[in-house]
Amino acid sequence: MAQRPLLLIDAPSLYFRAYFGVPESSARAADGSPVNAVRGFLDMLATLVRTRRPDRMVCALDFDWRPQWRVALLPSYKTHRLAPESDGGEVVPDTLGPQVPVILDVLAAIGIPVVGADGYEADDVLGTLATTEPAPVEVVSGDRDLFQLVDDDRPVRLLYVGRGVAKLEDCDDAAVRTRYGVPADRYADFAALRGDPSDGLPGVPGVGEKTAARLIDRYGSVQGILAALDAPGSGFAPGLRAKLDGAREYLAVAPTVVRVARDVPLGSIATALPAAPVDPDRLLELAERWNLASPVRRLVDALAGHP
């Protein structure tokens, strides 16, 4: 019998998608408060539990969505997502912010652990758990940076939800190679070259995905590319050489910014997925207060069905 996976949930990725995927008008509490993100998030979890059949689950949070150690290396990191007149806060829709504590309350009542770490993003928590927890592991996210976690040997897969949980893409190393032309363990270097506007990574001007993949295929890493630039007879076309030379300062730090941390101090985590809510009275109270009876029931039913 195949081992059941540990399902690692990128909670911010999913609840942002839930917020924009479920209309506010269709999901409100009795007092009129929107609960569309809560409903959508719980339904995503129910679908994942029902279809992936995990026996363990952890939801990861951003305790620091823009860590200073990344900003120190690359000041442009996520600057476009900074909320105006805030002390480093992220732009979050006004009606999403109040829903996050409700999500956390429901998860606590069910008994699904939520984990974060000061100075680190959810990606780093996911990377650490994917590296240190017993496999098999399935990471659920719409963040492309997490393709770097895919590892056929452990195994670790990325369930990529860029088009939603109903259309998730189950990605192994071959899928990453097909999609980007590089193996998963080279994705961070590839992304540094290509850039990622959603994270404020400029990339190397004039170097797109195909050129980035070709460079990684030939030289193995950004470090290998920089070393080759200084080697006689390395064979770079003059235009490409000029582009890479002009981006040396950026390339010296960008892979570290993109690379997910795998050694975040998290302590011991009870990852076992409960077959029934650990605090049913509290869960009932939350379901009634926030008009969540249907999504809560769907998630509870999915949990009850897992072996």
From TrEMBL:
Keywords assigned by UniProt, alphabetized:
DNA-binding, Exonuclease, Hydrolase, Nuclease
> What does the function comment of this entry state?
5'-3' exonuclease acting preferentially on double-stranded DNA.
Superkingdom, taxonomy of origin: Bacteria
Q: Which residues form the signal peptide?
A: none
Please report the name of this protein according to its UniProt entry. 5'-3' exonuclease
Does the keyword section mention Hydrolase? yes
Biological process annotations from GO:
DNA replication, Okazaki fragment processing
Would the keyword DNA-binding turn up in this protein's UniProt record?
A: yes
- Which molecular function GO terms apply here? 5'-3' exonuclease activity; 5'-flap endonuclease activity; DNA binding
